[in-house]
Amino acid sequence: MSRAILCVLDSFGIGGAPDAEQFGDAGSNTLGHIAARCAAGEADRPGLRSGPLQVPNMNRLGLGRAAVLASGTAPAGLDVSAEPQGIWGCASETSRGKDTPSGHWEIAGVPVAFDWGYFPETVPTFPADLIAAIIERGQLPGILGDRHASGTQIIEELGKEHIRSGKPICYTSADSVFQIAAHETHFGLERLYALCEIVRELVDPLNIGRVIARPFTGESPAEFTRTANRRDYSVLPPEPTLLDRVVAAGGKTLTVGKISDIFAHSGVTSVLKGAGNDALFDKTLEAIRLAGDGDLVFSNFIDFDSLYGHRRDVAGYAAALEAFDRRLPEMLALVRPGDMLLLTADHGCDPTWRGTDHTRERVAVIGVAPDGKPHSIGIRPTFADMGETLAAHLGLAAGRHGTPFA
Hints:
Elements: E1 4-9, H1 30-39, H2 56-61, H3 63-71, E2 87-91, H4 100-107, H5 128-138, E3 144-148, H6 151-165, E4 169-172, E5 177-183, H7 184-203, E6 210-217, E7 225-226, E8 231-234, H8 242-248, E9 253-256, H9 259-262, E10 270-272, H10 277-290, E11 296-301, H11 303-309, H12 314-332, E12 340-344, E13 363-368, E14 375-380, H13 384-393
Parallel strand pairs: 1-11, 1-12, 2-14, 3-4, 5-6, 9-10, 9-11
Antiparallel strand pairs: 2-13, 4-5, 6-7, 6-8, 12-13
Helix pairs in contact: 1-12, 5-7, 10-12, 11-12
């Protein structure tokens, strides 16, 4: 037994989901389309990046080969001729949604077999009685927004009115979420958190997956900036996840980024936060250094999804992938013989796709095996195979879902 390290590159899909058509996403491919745009010179941005997508370290582990398995085509600019030096393959999602909790819970061994509740694409989107209860219990003068929206755009549009009126900005998306944006000082961070706890209770009967606090700062639309004090109020997973099983066996779970919120803090022993992928990478390295035998390090790198996928920013997404890849050797240097490292994703968010929502895609599963020997794990029928593989690696009893691939 040694350590397990699991990193989720949020939304980094690689296409090929067998049920993509059911979600209106047939043909979506986050990696493939980013790589194609880069190779065509359509993702060049002065001062940021240019040319073909450069992710040699992930590709050396098997990213390109995983993409070929998933979608049948090699991403433009990635050499798939050399034998990978890591374990590599891809996985399909079986959960009924393409949202963050569903993806992460399934990775941790618990697929979501039920349907989440969603808010309609109408204006207003929220039920009138729900808003009335929120205003009454939150002692609010009212709310702003009440529609599907991009978080950054709606803050830019309504931030000044929010500061003037004291009304929080409430919005949703295609995910099962109720999001509340409010100014950290004018409205108050603790007041925002308290309001989210009220809303969490009120939306439980609607089976809404998450209530998300979206604090921001600044005094004008040009200055408004969302801060790292985001907090997700999730429902509990329907059964024990890999995190719960690790803790029950006496191990520690060191979670980085929003992982603790996604699992409603169940099975979490340590929380390390950071603002942006680079800081989250630093925290992941810190967690690996702190972890001992039998422990799990579980990180989420949110920028791929929130800053670039949803905003349909191809150049930004490509640059973020290249930045992560440049730092990957730092992580690999901390992997000891006997450790297991997996890099994966929770869903897709193809920045070339229509709309601004997640896309149903397979995800890559690449990394380092405990024995250090490279091999293919093929196409896994469920994300839960990752959780079961890590559970077996840590000496835990088998769970109800998934099959170990090691």
